[in-house]
Every structure is written in C-alpha cells, then in structure tokens.
Amino acid sequence: MTGRRTGATIVGAFLLALSLMTEAGALDEELRLFPDITGWRGGETLSMKLEAPSQVMGSRSERLYRRETDNHTIQVIMLKGPGTLWQGLPKGEISADDGPIGSGATFRTLEAGGYRAVMEDHPLTGKALVVEMAPDSTLTFETGFEDVDLERFAVVFLQQYQP
Known about the structure:
26% of the residues lie in helices and 40% in strands. By secondary structure, the chain is α+β, with helices and mostly antiparallel strands.
C-alpha cells in the first residue's frame, strides 16, 4: 500500500509540474505577443483557433489594456494565418475620408514602429490602427476614447513585441 501511495504521489507531482510548466510556457508566449506596457494594466489574453473542417486556418488573440490613471482602454487584436482573409494594406499613401454620404470617418497611412499601418478615426465608434505585421498577420489597436494616443501606444507595444 505504501509503494502504491508513493508511486501515485510521484506521478501526481510529475503531472502537477508538467501542468505548471505548460502554464508558464503559455504565459511566456502571451507576454511575447501581448507585452506589459508601462502605465497600462493588461487583462486576460483570449485566444481561439480559426478552423475549417479540413485544417486550422489561423488564430485570433486579443488583450484589453486599461490605462492606470483613468481606466481608458485599448483593445489589441492579433490575427494570424491564411484564413484571416487579410489582403494587405493598399500600396501608396492614403489620406482620405468616407465621402459626402459617410459618417465623417478619416483614413491615413503611416508607419508605426517600422511597420506599415493605417489609422481610421471615426466620430461615432472611435479610432482603429491596423498594423501590417507580415503577409498573413495583423495587429489592430482600437479605442473609443478621444484622449488615447493609439500611435504612441502602438510604437511602445511594437518595441516590446516578439513575434
């Protein structure tokens, strides 16, 4: 009986250690993709695979950041893989609005942390900054708060980001 108990204890300890190592590995991966940013509290990272019946087509991961001074937020979304339908940003420079029957949104291309990006500023829904990371992946930064500087946040984020 003692031998079985000792064996069960060793197996249990091994499984617990393996579980903790897996969680630590997932946490390391999470921090590489969604680093901690000074002045902001990062929430839980949510991830899901984009699957078709025949294969995994990519992934979507996101993390909500809250500014420590006032709780204003930025949602950061990572899309990766061939199933994201990402076609890339248009070539050339863009500075435009959504026209006479639009709702006042403006669009402009820029560089954020060495990556090509486009900023959309919409008076009803807020701002979104889409950063082209690779041919099949994008990072999107979104906020509904006028006083949040998405460009500055994105540059700091990208300096710490490790794909």
